Amino acid sequence: MPKNPSRALRRHHRKRLKRRRAHYWNGTAGATPRRAGRCLHSPASCSCWLCGNRRRHHGETLQEQRFAQTALWEPDDA
Ligand SMILES: [Zn+2]
Q1: What is the pLDDT of residues 8-57, one digit of tens each?
Q2: What residue segments make up the domains of the chain, in order of their start?
Q3: Cys-Cys with 24: which of 17, 29, 59, 61 at CB 3.0–4.6 Å?
Q4: CA distance 76 to 78
Q5: If DSSP codes are grouped into helix, strand and coil, which group holds residue 56?
Q6: 66 C-alpha to center of ligand 1: Å?
Q7: CA 51 to ligand 1 center in whole angstroms
C-alpha cells in the first residue's frame, strides 16, 4: 500500500477486507460491526505458538542464525 493513500482508497480496502474476513474466527468475525473491525485490525485472534510471533516462540530464524555466523555481524552493544 502506498505511504499516503487517499481516504477513499483506505475505505475501499477496509470494506473489502471486512467482507473477505467475515468467515474468520469460525464464521463469527462478521457477526457484528465491532467484531468485523477487530478482525480487520488483528485477524489472528490469539497468540499461541501457531498464530503468534515466530521469534518469540521458536527463537531466532534460520536466516538470523546464519547471518550471526558471518563476519559482517556485530552485536548491538558493541
Ligand atoms: Zn492461535
Answers
A1: 999 999 999 999 999 999 999 999 999 999 999 999 888 899 888 889 99
A2: 7-68
A3: 29
A4: 6
A5: helix
A6: 28
A7: 4
